[in-house]
Amino acid sequence: MASDLPPDFVIFTSIRYEPSLQQPALSLPYYLLPFHLARLRGAAEAFNLNKVQELLRDDVSALALLRRAVDDAVPDTTTPWRVNVRFTPDAQVTSSATGIPPLRNNIMSLPDTDALPAFLQQEVRRRGLKHWDVVIDTEPTPASLFTGHKTSAREMYNAARDRAGLVSYDEPKEILLWNESGEVTEGSITTVYLWRKASGTGAPRLVTPPLACGPNASSTRRYALSKGLCGEEAVKLEDLHDGDEIWLSHASDGFFPGRVRFL
User: Fold this and answer.
1) Per-residue confidence band for 12, with pLDDT thresholds at 50, 70 and 90
2) Which residue, 221, 204, 215, is CA-closest to 255?
């Protein structure tokens, strides 16, 4: 696979540097750092990037490398940043930082599964969280290695955003993607979580599409699954309704609500 990749191909991850919070469980100020490492390892393996795999093999040295890459890119340690850390197939590492606003929602971590539905409803009311406008794409985005991992090959996401008329990444708007089998996969920049009823009890629970459907194996997805905050379940487009509440996540803002809208 590595020999077939474009000459400018990189795998990368986007790490939030957040100096206002100190939560060891989330590796702050480097938000979810071990989960970013897991994501990069998965991408290096999927694309047969042997040199990158070797560079990231040891936990201690790999995490130190990521922290160093973030530190090298951040020009001011008193403000938050989104830091892109990139790896070329020959294991060259580069990083760059973009200034980002203070946390809009401040939901970086989530409670245990049983308390999750009530917690999220409370947070929406207490914080006055704005639901993102999540429009459903009009065309499928086929599942591939390039949807499953974060790489420089992002043409499919750009095309989806163009179809929805999304021009800014700063607006609370997203497009919901689906694969050729009519299964929900992800957002163009977010992981998606959908409410379903647990078998037997009928209690509400969050599910996220399995990787086999084609979503990106994101850092926040890995975190949510590792804590048992959601399950994996394929969800068909036909099971969604206009106005349904869903939840979204990405490594810059944590977790936040959205509402489905059909174009």
Assistant:
1) very high
2) 221
Q: What DSSP letter does each residue of 166-213 carry, written as one string?
A: ---SSSSEEEEEE-TTSBEEEESSSEEEEEEEPTTT--EEEEE--GGG
- Count of CB atoms situated within 10 Å of the CB of 132: 18
Long-range contacts (CB closer than 8 Å, 24 or more residues apart) made by 114-123: 116/205, 116/206, 116/229, 117/203, 117/204, 117/205, 120/247, 120/257
What is the average pLDDT across 145-157? 95
Q: What is the mean pLDDT of the chain?
A: 91
Nearest to 145 by CA among 52, 219, 53, 214: 214
> Letter for the amino acid at 185?
T
Positive or negative torsion for Cα 68, 74, 79, 84:
negative
* Euclidean distance between CA atoms 196 and 8, whole angstroms: 41
**Angle of the 33-46 helix axis to the 59-73 helix axis, nearest 10:** 110
User: How many angstroms separate the CA atoms of 259 and 90, rounded?
Assistant: 42
Record the tokens describing residue 164, joined without a space: 């929805």
Spatial separation of the C-alpha atoms in residues 158 and 146, rounded to whole Å: 13
164 and 263 Cβ atoms separated by less than 8 Å: yes
Q: Does pLDDT of 210 surpass 80? A: yes
SS3 126: helix
HSE-CB of 38 using CA atoms within 13 angstroms: 13
For the four alpha carbons of 172, 27, 147 and 89, in that order, the dihedral sign comes to: positive
Rounded CA-CA distance 94/259 in Å is 36
Beta strands in the chain (DSSP E): 11-17, 81-87, 93-99, 132-136, 173-178, 184-187, 191-197, 204-208, 231-232, 245-250, 254-262
